[in-house]
């Protein structure tokens, strides 16, 4: 299984490096993070913290990551190569995990580029290492959740644009919509909306708070959407 997943991950990574969309998303991500750092963090008299930048990145990724994942399975369906893949000696679980890791590794590479901001911030101000570590742990977990949602969306259709829209809509509901609704409700409904709000859990990490409930939320949520992607792929066998 490990050998198959590693081969699929390598194949997906190679495909990403040949995709113009991946380069566009990467360029926008780098420009946006640089602008956020210069505009909200590296400001004289402000707190030496990346929290504002990380919080903004969490919103940005709602739109960026579905664009990276939109082709992972949709392109296989559209080109017909899914038939070859499904008759190869690999399971649906291995295919989904390989596709997931291919995009996730690329995301981690993009996230690693922001470490230059950590170096600059440390050079010009006293930073809290613990808060920084937890903030980046939150970004790692958030990215895994977002990529899993994107892979699931891509497993639903052969059209890449539709996959991107579905992925963005799911993430928008779990972030923007529930955040807005939480302001309208009170009591138990507010608690439920707060729990399913992805950014609410991420903000615990960006504040330097390690909450096992938030950790469980991200891990279980990632596993849940990967499970749905596997089931969506399995359904293709019966069509």
What would you note in describing this structure?
With 239 residues, this protein is mainly alpha-helical. Helix content is 81%, strand content 0%. The protein is built from twelve helices and no strands. The longest helix is centred in the middle third of the chain and has 26 residues. The radius of gyration is 19 Å and the shape is globular. The chain starts with a helix and ends with a helix. The mean pLDDT is 86.
Q: How many separate domains?
A: 1
| Strand and helix order | HHHHHHHHHHHH
Radius of gyration: 19 Å
Which sheet architecture does the biggest sheet show?
none
Q: Give the strand content.
A: under 5%
Question: Which shape, going by the Cα principal axes?
Answer: globular
Helix content: over 70%
How many helical elements?
12
Which features does this protein show?
239 residues, mainly alpha
Write the layout of secondary structure elements.
Elements: H1 2-16, H2 20-41, H3 51-69, H4 74-79, H5 81-87, H6 92-113, H7 115-124, H8 129-154, H9 160-182, H10 188-196, H11 198-206, H12 212-236
Helix pairs in contact: 1-6, 2-3, 3-8, 3-9, 3-11, 6-8, 6-12, 8-9, 8-11, 8-12, 9-10, 11-12
